[in-house]
Amino acid sequence: MKKHNFSAGPCILPEEVLKKASEAILNFNGDNLSLIEISHRSKPFVAVMDKAQKLVLELLNLEDKGYKVLFLQGGASTQFLMTAYNFLNKKAAYLNTGTWSSKAIKEAKLFGDLVEVASSKDNNFTYIPKEFEIPVDADYFHCTSNNTIYGTQLKEFPTTDVPMICDMSSDIFSRQLDFSRFDLIYAGAQKNMGPAGTTLVVIKESLLENVQRQVPSMLNYKTHIDKDSMFNTPAVFAVYVSMLTLEWLKDIGGIEFIEKVNNKKAELLYNEIDRNPLFKGVVNKEDRSTMNTTFVLTDESLKAQFDTMCADAGISGINGHRSVGGYRASMYNALPLYSVQALVDVMQELERNN
Amino acid sequence: MKKHNFSAGPCILPEEVLKKASEAILNFNGDNLSLIEISHRSKPFVAVMDKAQKLVLELLNLEDKGYKVLFLQGGASTQFLMTAYNFLNKKAAYLNTGTWSSKAIKEAKLFGDLVEVASSKDNNFTYIPKEFEIPVDADYFHCTSNNTIYGTQLKEFPTTDVPMICDMSSDIFSRQLDFSRFDLIYAGAQKNMGPAGTTLVVIKESLLENVQRQVPSMLNYKTHIDKDSMFNTPAVFAVYVSMLTLEWLKDIGGIEFIEKVNNKKAELLYNEIDRNPLFKGVVNKEDRSTMNTTFVLTDESLKAQFDTMCADAGISGINGHRSVGGYRASMYNALPLYSVQALVDVMQELERNN
User: Fold this and answer.
1) Which chain B residues contact residue A2 at CB under 8 A?
2) pLDDT given at position B204
3) CATH dotted code for B4-11+255-353
4) Which of A67, A238, B88, B272 could be joined to A197 by an S-S link, Cβ 3.0–4.6 Å?
């Protein structure tokens, strides 16, 4: 039985993508060579990189707007320091909405002054601060669009004249936004884009003019832009699977279509959480993430029973993050609506049984 | 027809490894989930990471000698700066034997003084300098064990009291060495270990005592050691395939066995290059690499003919690096002896025809 995979990341990918990826490991491009044993500078792979970059710009509606697309290594965690290494000259403004924002802040502090414009740490990151001011002389403003661990999501982004940098690791390609408002977007692939091992960076090329520090080659965005993301050997497999996933997304109707599906999935699960007396949501209603739903049992003694029922129904990956506890159902792009229905069914069955 | 894959990297991997990797993309561990859609903190993947680390220590004969094994991201290119960021406090000594050494030197210069103890640049890196002195007050000595691009290889390593750091990207696991003489070894996976996307670091834990600088988390070896190489999401697929390849190597007899095969392959090809009047080796005989054989035609007008004959015989990936020209046959661990024989056959056929 195929599982209902609610894993927070690495996470579910479209089945047709997995099939194509599996085939490419044996025979890529009909050349009788594996995808992973050919040169990254060979024509077939250069075409993959090129296509992946084009698909990103197309899906985000950023074509011909001065943006470059990079597939780097090292995860969002490396972007925490790279963004600061490149662009923090004097002072930067950060919105602290959870574990990942806090980590970004920690790394940036090595490179200059930090202004935390607002933080929801006072209430264990269960809400998104709305009222804050971004200093006009900040080098940039940094925020995290979706908080994978706590299950909150920025619904609105501030209006500011300083460059806006956003960690969109866990909700990129899930909803329509005016992506041209951002100067740099980064995202680990392993949620809506592909397997772990590559990190998407979408950067407005003009932002490079702000670099004042001497940056080591591998941490320098310019290095990678100048070499079309092929300065060194990229994570070939992860880039290929990302390309396949972006292709899949385009084919089913792009972000416009998937956003509707994602909203339906979120509505279905949150409605059940709010209706069912055995469950309770963790975060502020208006800040609820469409990607990661955090909830707890109102009666902790039902935990063993619920866990067994979930396992029996093939529901996988809904344990809360070790730093939060409870449950977390991650509903990324590739998770079908019927998987959410399966979870809701179990929640209702638990209610009937008790 | 399966090709004879002489690619310089990413390169040939054992067929059984490719088969297992392809299967794991569809169903890993019999759990009806893909390897790339499960949490990296799930038991099955933690077991993969653990096994890969143990296999490295076992194969390198470094068990219980104070070494830690990391699977990082960012390639050897990131190690160029990480080694210096962590360990270059005042001055470091580098041996310059080619493109990769030169790049390592360039990055290290951002962090302190560099002493180039010797260089073979004067003769386009066609030899390995033998006579040089390592300053006793250097923070460390850095060298590149095998030069993928030029086709030279260090047969002997210097005796020194300063910590020894070695980039073994293109010949690790190919020959027996006293690996305990090195304090830090790094290697991009995509030659003898696996696909592109992960970088092996084997580090003597006591070396951490030398760190004086405040290093960003992701660039700090201590961060990764403290979290057993799971500080952030690792490149799951690349680590898994590396584990499979290390397992394969152990099963066929480890480095002791593969070294004999590698020597046979190298002997076969170099003998033909020396015997056949139509070909000429590029580098000093005593410094010839067993991994990458560089050679040229003595009569350039035969190029089109030779290239066609190679293509017809299914020989792939023997074009020289764009910075050197000529030919380069890379004969990594997974390349069978019969592939080298196939190349030698074509070389002899070319001789008969002309």
Assistant:
1) 32
2) 98
3) 3.90.1150.10
4) A238
